[in-house]
Amino acid sequence: MEFASETEVSEAGKHVRSLSAALNQVLFGQEELIELVLTGILARGHILLEGLPGLGKTELVKGLSKTLRLGTKRVQFTPDLLPGDITGNPVLQEVDGRRSFVFQPGPLFTNIVLADEINRASPKTQSALLEAMQERRVTVLGETHDLPKPFFVLATQNPIELEGTYPLPEAQLDRFLFKLEVTRNDVATLERIVNHRELGTEPTVEAIMDQSTLQSTLDLVRRIFLPEVVGNYIARLVDATHPGQSAAARGIRYGASPRAALSLASAAKARALMNERTNASFEDVRFVAPAVLRHRIVLEYNARVEGLTNNDVVRSILEEVPAHSGATPKTMSTATPA
Q: By CB neighbour count within 10 A (0-12 exposed, 13-18 middle, 19+ buried), where does 248 fall?
């Protein structure tokens, strides 16, 4: 495979910077969140946004679809939503004098699916997304239908209103490249929102990329060089999430899967392109690691009772595992004899 050139990366980086600037006019004061969302898109991943109502999660997704000129559909997940309501259903129609079932595509047949409050849908409906998210296709009554390219699922969930919700199973969570936490705004940002926004109105956003430019950028990300030492660092980070493999993993019951390692590599390459570099670095991996790993580890009950969170564990792993394999882990350094 031919690796990306500096000229190609520089040109693509300019488009991505314009995209980031436009989205920062949609959602004030969330620069890091927007950078991570764009990183996830460039890595061809699905994203789970977790945050309280009214923080702008839906507006961010709408703004993203407008700046990329991509088709988007919103699905409000509720307990009575059926799998066929999102995948589509065969409908009996009369064709040339004969009645036959004709497949009518559901809202999944678009480029960006906004799955609002995904944890309110039943497990049966949630599982209908598994094939779509992994294979980019759906199967209805034994017939397979390919989804449009590119295809992204950006799902939202509320972390506090848990009555009447169905927590996403681990297999479903593992399909999301990132789990991002949308935090509240500070006073300065709130003042800016009050002075520049009206309730019930959407911000005006101009298109930055067309579908062809986006596709070429996605292809370019795959050609970003991943040095062997960075690949080794990714492997050691994922291995350190398993019990017995690091001091930080003491409270972990189940660690991250190989898909997490692939996700780290893809996201690191995407961030390298965003910063106009032709190769991924240790710093790229460290930046995306919390978003990739926080939803892929399961803590022991005792650890949760003690107040330990997934973010705490990931932070400890990043502090413990050195970038270079020959270095001594910080928490395992040998004490000086008395």
A: buried
